[in-house]
Amino acid sequence: METRRIIRARDVALMPKSSVTIGSSTQTPPEAEEAAPRKPDDYVSALIKLIPSEAIGTFVAVDGLVRGTGKLSPVAYWIVFVLLILLCAGYVARQLQKDKGQFPYLQFGLSLGAFPVWVYAVGGPFEYAGLSWYDPTFGGILAMLYSGFATLAARR
Prior knowledge:
Elements: H1 9-14, E1 20-22, E2 25-27, H2 30-35, H3 43-50, H4 53-69, H5 74-97, H6 105-122, H7 124-128, H8 136-154
Antiparallel strand pairs: 1-2
């Protein structure tokens, strides 16, 4: 199973080199090469690992129910939104803890931040509550800028 943790160039440099000495030569067994990636994630891979897709999928389902019925108060929708942020934090932290080593706090923060940015971009409780300062154009721009800068920051 592929890890959700972003592999940076400095992570590759710190990875132990698995090798076996056979006679007078040292060789790396094929299973050791497959076990640990030896190159950093490219931009697209890092972007995909930052997106909390499970939380976004849950939000899409909740948003469809809220808008379909139209009976939920804006305050209740905000409460649901905050609960989804908390669930997203727990889920992303759990996924990142599966890997050994130091916990990637920067990646955790960037992944967690991606969720409310994405919700703002599609409307969610911001649009549902009829907030005067909500603008879907700014939401789309914010989502694009956040995705680009977050991915670049995570790969440093």
